[in-house]
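Retry 2 of 3 after timeout on previous attempt. Resubmitting structure tokens to design endpoint.
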């Protein structure tokens, strides 16, 4: 699936529709450069999951956790920018988050590609201009 959005609001709306299709155990792997809109997309996923819009970049925290009183699913938002080895990944506790009640959204997934589960959903976000993004989703027929 490939979509072009023309504003952050459109990106969030599209991501909301994707979030509504997610289920526990899903791993979302983002591909996209700095400022591509990965955190904006995650904000939309969170809204679509019924968790809310309080998503912020996990750059300095490595992982942010988002829960809702009305949902059994927890969204974990990772930033793997500084992860350069399997040992680095192991120290993050990454594998401990893989659970049927969790959804993982992973920024800079290129750095851990070999460690991602087989059923990972890849979302490539390309910055076309200040507000325009091309979003491509691969890895699951739910998003076709």
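Retry 2 succeeded. Sequence:
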């Amino acid at each position: 699936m490939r979509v072009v959005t023309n504003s952050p609001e459109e990106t969030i709306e599209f991501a909301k529709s994707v979030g509504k299709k997610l289920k526990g155990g899903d791993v979302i792997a983002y591909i996209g450069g700095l400022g591509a809109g990965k955190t904006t997309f995650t904000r939309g996923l969170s809204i679509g999951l019924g968790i809310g819009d309080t998503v912020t970049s996990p750059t300095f925290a490595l992982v942010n956790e988002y829960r809702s009183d009305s949902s059994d699913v927890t969204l974990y938002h990772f930033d793997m920018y500084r992860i350069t080895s399997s040992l680095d990944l192991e120290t993050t506790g990454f594998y401990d988050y893989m659970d049927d009640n969790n959804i993982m959204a992973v920024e800079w997934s290129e750095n851990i590609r070999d460690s991602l589960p087989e059923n990972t959903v890849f979302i490539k976000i390309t910055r076309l201009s200040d507000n325009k993004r091309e979003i491509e989703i691969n890895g699951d027929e739910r998003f076709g």
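Attempt log closed. The CA atoms of residues 50 and 70 lie 7 Å apart.
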